[in-house]
Amino acid sequence: MIRNILNELTVRGVRHLIISALFFVVYALCGTAIMLTVLFLIDRHISGESVSLISAAWILVGLLILKTISNAVADMSKHFAGFDLVERIREKIILKLKMFSLGFYTNERLGEISTVIHKDVDNMEMVVGHLWTRMSADFIVALILGIGLFWVDWHMGLAMIAILPIALFSLYRGIRSGMKAQQEAQDGLTDMVSLFVEYVKGIPMLKVFGGKGMFRDRLDHSVSEFGESSKNASRLAAVSVGRYTFLIELAFALMATLGLWWTWRGELSLFAYLMFVIVSKEFYKPFVNMESHWLNYIKVKDSYERISRLLDAPVIVDPDQPKTAERFDLSFDGVGFHYEKEGFEMKDLTFNVPERTVTALVGSSGSGKTTITNLLLRFWEPQAGCIRIGGVDIREMDYDYLLGKISVVMQNVILFSDTIANNIKVGNRNATQGEIEEAARRAMIHDFIVSLPDGYETKIGENGLGLSGGQKQRLSIARAFLKDAPILLLDEITSNVDPVNEYKIQQAMSVLIRKRTVLVIAHHLQTIRNAHQIIVMDKGQLMEKGMHAELEAKGGMYCKLLSMQ
Ligand SMILES: Nc1ncnc2c1ncn2[C@@H]1O[C@H](COP(=O)(O)OP(=O)(O)O)[C@@H](O)[C@H]1O
Ligand SMILES: [Mg+2]
């Protein structure tokens, strides 16, 4: 993982990382040198030798300045390295987001993407930029000082590190068991939060049906479970850190005691002894902070995995040799599909929609009608089979080309906070005012638009604030007229509309569907009597196929749907 993260950095970023670490090393060594100089001066003084105080002062001041400068340089470079990394990752994510199929953007995904962009990317900057530079510097310093101290006296050196392996092993064990407990606490938190969300969403229902008691028991249980698992995790962490800290201090105490004994016996000079006592603090530093280094590593790993998941998710790639369609009939050939979540499953779906005919999709809610249109638009990719337009696999077409051949009018119209004219122009950005008005006229919305004070230049709010459902729907029909694509998908367009609007929409529709290949999903079965073909869906399966009269005579599922209305 570390290598992958470093690979994300630009050359400049790596340079900043190295500079920062090196200057932190200089910074720490200056600190030690200052202490050693003072120690040296005292030693000289005690042994009655003369020292030049002036030159000593110069050395101290020089070291102090060097220390300050290195700190500033290291600090600055670590920020640069961090920003470099963050910038690179954000750039990559943004590039990638454009290439995902729309089906990628489930609610959970949106949550995850926002976590990645906010938290994980910042984590990377914090840990890789700020902490890892310091940490590697600490280890380099420990190595240099360790070698130096061994060189001064290897007995003392051994005493200094004797207990370290035991301490590190104990920390490793502690972390392993702590992580398990941490995971349990994390799972508990997830459970609790989703239960809370369910509860809050369901409050109106619970109020109406008086089911609060039942839910409260579940919530209470989940809250106390989370409490227990968190306490357990904290307890384990505290024990492990406590034990580790004790062992490191024991390592120091052992060295200090042995050193004292050796000094008394005259085997070690006082100067060397004091040097060990003072300098070993710096030597132990990275080990003392080991626990937090480890936690940071886990944090970065977690963030990095989420970032990688996002960056490695499959995208829609245009083919090397894109094909175009000569005709615009549709065919689903043995299409098999399921969403990421278990449950709904479409199996071996096969049907044709001849060019310039109308096929109606009917079936109870959840039977997979909208899914069929989503597959045609490549919002999701089928796991089996093939979808063709004019005999060409839609995966062999450029994606923009495919989308250009399909107009969609759906139940939920998406409008932008812009003028009415610009909202219609979504259908065709190069349209002239005349073409826009013609489209609006055909969509039976022109009269309404010109009755507004600013006419076509009237600003509408986000999602068409200030327009009725039917008016929004007719704007989206105007878009479809303007786009003039050979294939038309209509998904329950009149389900949220009052009768007057519905009448106008039906009229506009009867013009719009002429000479196009149409897939229409309608919940009023009356409206699709005249379709050339009706396909009855149930649980993702095609149950019946035929014209209205045929299916009515057959007395199957279609009849059941009819009688339910
Ligand atoms: N994005 C999605 N992720 C997971 N399941 C989905 C998603 N969209 C729809 N479904 C499920 O797929 C099934 C078919 O949905 P849909 O095609 O919208 O049905 P219809 O349009 O016939 O009402 C439903 O059970 C629905 O819950
Ligand atoms: Mg639907």
From TrEMBL:
SMART domains the record matches: AAA
TM ranges: 21-42, 54-74, 131-152, 158-175, 244-262
Cellular compartments annotated: Cell membrane
Record GO cellular component, one term: plasma membrane
Domain ABC transmembrane type-1 per the UniProt entry, residue ranges: 18-299
PROSITE patterns membership: ABC_TM1F (PS50929), ABC_TRANSPORTER_1 (PS00211), ABC_TRANSPORTER_2 (PS50893)
Keyword Lipid metabolism carried by entry: no
InterPro entries, sorted: AAA+_ATPase, ABC1_TM_dom, ABC1_TM_sf, ABC_transporter-like_ATP-bd, ABC_transporter-like_CS, P-loop_NTPase, Type_1_exporter
Transport is among the record's keywords: yes
Membrane topology: Multi-pass membrane protein
Keywords: ATP-binding, Cell membrane, Membrane, Nucleotide-binding, Transmembrane, Transmembrane helix, Transport
All copies of domain ABC transporter, residue ranges: 330-564
CDD domains for this protein: ABC_6TM_exporters (cd07346)
Molecular function via GO: ABC-type transporter activity; ATP binding; ATP hydrolysis activity; ATPase-coupled lipid transmembrane transporter activity
Record-linked PANTHER family: ABC TRANSPORTER, ATP-BINDING TRANSMEMBRANE PROTEIN, ATP-BINDING CASSETTE SUB-FAMILY B
Protein name as catalogued: ABC transporter
